[in-house]
Specification:
By secondary structure, the protein is α/β, with parallel strands linked by helices. It folds into two domains: about 10-170 and about 320-390, Response regulator (Rossmann fold); about 175-315 and about 395-405, Rossmann fold. The chain has helices at about 10-20, 80-95, 110-125, 135-145, 175-185, 200-215, 235-240, 270-285, 320-330, 340-355, 365; strands spanning about 30, 65-70, 100-105, 130, 150-155, 165-170, 190-195, 220-225, 260-265, 290, 310-315, 375, 380, 390, 395-400, 400-405. It has a five-stranded parallel β-sheet with strand order 3-2-4-5-6, sandwiched between helices. It has a four-stranded antiparallel β-sheet with strand order 1-12-13-14, covered by helices on one side. It has a four-stranded parallel β-sheet with strand order 8-7-9-10, with helices on both faces. Helix 3 runs parallel beside helix 4 (about 135-145). It is elongated and about 70 Å long.
């Protein structure tokens, strides 16, 4: 059973802890294109709304805007849903969200629950919907919100859900490939390969690799898929490195030099470690091979696997996110899961939008601010097609963790996606 929560307070302890932290981090602000905006964790107050002089109070509002937050507070993803809610409540304290009332609703992690949660929130006067998390939930919510003339800022990554009244805030895998391959091309890596699960996610990443290299002047030499149900990647590795198993055979010749400079491994957890070890063994000690990762690599202990050290992956710049992790932990007593930051940035964005004049606060025009916004996951903005664009950094895996080798952009001027 999820722990009970109030619309604006996670608990009396959380309320007092957040108040103590309120001056440690400023609210999200619109991110100017030029000059670069200051980092999120600096001490910078939000700009005054249009027509309001700096240092003056905003005009009195008729009442707080109501925003729904649809998350699974029961079911298989209840722990993640509660963390997203906790992060959203933290954001409202730190962003000074007095113009906004959060309406948390439990989706149960399924389409029917999400639909019921949406109707409940709309009945209570919600004017924007944050969430839900899973693709079937978004599909169920979309027509209900559309009929109520409400926009949705969902946490899904299934891109065909975007458009119309749906904006996706999840971390989109294709953008990770674009960023890290773009960086690899700058470092002189020209020939690429991919070893991916035979799944929609694996094919999406492999297709993105083809698209990016074609536009950047690189070449995809090989693509191999493995069955994610069996966990056996030996044949796929052998196909990538024809002599890759030579060291295991008594009369075999040494492994040959790979025909590619970088290998994309969009996998995570124990299987990633296993695959990386097999790849390093098969590649031999000849020409260095750079491993490229995905968002699944963005875990604290990634550097504990020696085979992954030196690999690159794209993610939000870690400094602001680490600051968020510390504040979350100080407030709630545990570290947040990776996706909790989506709840924080979504609620902070809603607080920013709520400052607009009545009737314009949550319009598509406001959401589509071309200058974008900045949050704990860095710069982001939405396209007219409903997809998020993020300013990502490139991180290199080290034994102690990760280090930024390609800083996140400070504006959207140079983004290639």
């Amino acid at each position: 059973m999820p722990r009970p929560c109030l619309p604006r307070f996670a608990s009396l302890f959380a309320a007092s802890a957040v108040v103590a932290l309120a001056n440690c981090a400023p609210p999200m602000v619109s991110a100017p294109i030029s000059p670069p905006q200051p980092p999120y964790f600096g001490q910078h107050p939000p700009p005054a709304p249009p027509g309001q002089r700096e240092g003056t109070a905003p005009p009195a509002a008729a009442g707080p805007e109501k925003v729904a937050l649809l998350v699974p507070l029961s079911g298989a993803n209840a722990e993640l849903g509660q963390a997203i809610l906790d992060a959203a409540q933290l954001a409202l304290f730190e962003a000074g969200g007095d113009r906004l009332t959060l309406l948390p609703r439990d989706t149960g992690g399924n389409a029917s629950g999400a639909a019921a949660a949406t109707r409940s929130a709309i009945g209570e006067g919600a004017r924007l919907i944050l969430g839900p998390l899973l693709a079937p939930e978004v599909e169920a919510v979309k027509p209900i919100a559309r009929d109520a003339h409400l926009n949705i800022i969902a946490f899904s990554t299934v891109t065909n859900l975007a458009g119309g009244n749906v904006f996706l805030m999840g971390f989109l895998p294709r953008q990770e490939v674009v960023r890290e391959v773009g960086y690899a091309r700058q470092q002189g890596l020209n020939r690429y390969a991919s070893l991916a699960p035979n799944s929609p996610y694996g094919h999406l990443m492999a297709d993105a690799l083809h698209e990016v290299t074609a536009t950047s002047g690189g070449t995809v030499v090989k693509v191999e898929f493995y069955d994610p149900r069996t966990g056996d990647v030996s044949q796929a590795v052998q196909n990538l490195f024809p002599a890759g198993n030579a060291a295991a055979l008594p009369d075999a010749t040494p492994p040959t030099t790979p025909s590619f400079d970088a290998l994309l491994l969009p996998e995570g957890g124990a299987r990633l470690r296993q695959i990386a070890q097999q790849v390093r063994t098969a590649a031999g000690d000849g020409k260095p091979l750079r491993l490229l990762g995905s968002g699944l690599w963005d875990v604290p202990d990634i550097g504990s696997e020696p085979a992954l050290v030196g690999g690159w992956f794209a993610s939000s710049s870690p400094e602001a996110r680490q600051d968020f992790d510390q504040r979350f932990s100080a407030t709630y007593g545990h570290q947040p899961p990776r996706l909790a930051s989506l709840g924080y940035d979504a609620a902070a964005l809603a607080a920013v939008l709520a400052r607009a004049p009545s009737g314009e606060a949550f319009s598509q025009q406001a959401i589509l601010n071309p200058n974008g916004f900045t949050g704990v996951d860095g710069l982001f903005r939405f396209t007219p097609g409903g997809l998020v664009q993020r300013g990502l950094a490139v991180l290199e895996v080290e034994p102690q963790g990760t280090v930024v080798v390609g800083p996140a952009p400070q504006s959207f001027q140079d983004l290639g996606y």
